[in-house]
Amino acid sequence: MVSILGCGWLGLPLACHLIEKGISVKGSVTNADIFPILKERGISPYQILLSPELSGDDLDGFFRCNILIINFPPERRLDITTYHPAQIQSLIQAIIKYRIPKVLFISSTSVYPDVNREVFEYENLKPEKGSGQALKIVEDLFREQKAFITTIVRFGGLVGYDRLPGRFLAAKKDVANADAPVNIIHRDDCIEIIYRIIQQEIWGEVFNACADEHPLRKNYYRQAAVLAGLEPPEFAENHHDVSFKIVNSDKLKKRLNYQFKYPDPIKMLGADV
Question: What is the phi/psi pair of residue 202, to 5°?
């Protein structure tokens, strides 16, 4: 039995995929009005809130599971570096209380600062942005737990289906960081990676997860806008002042024996998905 905390843009299709593979799934949302959508897809629905204290309509029912997938990003707020860890602390208490043995935490490559080189899972770098700082604190909280075991997956920028990157920078002028490589992953790859971790029982690990290729920002977002029928962005002329990171996913590919469905973000743009 798998419980997914956060059945949104990624969590809902993930739940459907797991059900197709014969796995029973409980899914949480913050709005009970969405229950019919979950039920229609065979997901047992629960309303769970973290504000930052944990509350819900049936905590006992939701947290009775073998694997908990935590899939919600830090809220954009001024106290993000204290609020998000407080949410997770409340959640950790429930994981221990209900004796959930395995946790899969969906993190982000924002835990890495821009160091103008490749970055790897074993590095202990200090994030620059508040969201990355909050996630790094939370990752450390999970990694220090003894009552359960956690695998952390750091996804790059999520794209696919209705999440069209062509809209992100369309028609913008003087956009910075033209020559920075991008770190992108398609939702289908995210779902398959999570399934493989569960299927292969790979716990206690940290994985980067980004497409193999890292095209330059100017090339990627111009092409994305054109394919979406939008005005492409114009990038600043100063190409020397570039700040970037290239997220290396070799560990994941080797450990899971995984090949990305969409290894090239440029070709990904033209996929009929």
Answer: -100, 100
The whole-number pLDDT of residue 239 equals: 66
**Cα 268 → chain centroid:** 18
Q: Return the bridge partners of 48, or none.
A: 56
DSSP one-letter code for 216: B
Report H helices in the chain: 11-20, 35-40, 59-63, 80-97, 130-143, 187-200, 217-227, 250-255, 265-269
CATH of domain 73-160+184-212+246-262: 3.40.50.720
- Residues sharing a CB contact under 8 Å with residue 126, sequence separation 6 or more, in sequence order: 113, 133, 136
Which residue shows structure tokens 């954009």?
A: 76
Beta-carbon neighbour count of residue 21 at 10 Å?
A: 11
Distance CA 229, CA 126 (A): 39
In the chain, domain spans: 73-160+184-212+246-262
Contact predicate 71/30, CB 8 Å: no
State mean pLDDT over 83-102.
98
Per-residue pLDDT tens over the stretch 199-250: 999 999 999 999 999 999 999 999 999 998 999 999 998 767 799 999 999 9
| Predicted TM-score (pTM) above 0.85 | yes
Are the C-beta atoms of residues 161 and 115 closer than 8 Å to each other?
Answer: no
Give the confidence band of 273 by pLDDT, cuts at 50, 70, 90: very low
- Phi then psi dihedrals of residue 160, to 5 deg: 125, 150
pLDDT digits (tens, 9 = 90+) for 34-60: 999 999 999 999 999 999 999 998 999
- Short-list 227, 226, 220, 235, CA closest to 265: 220
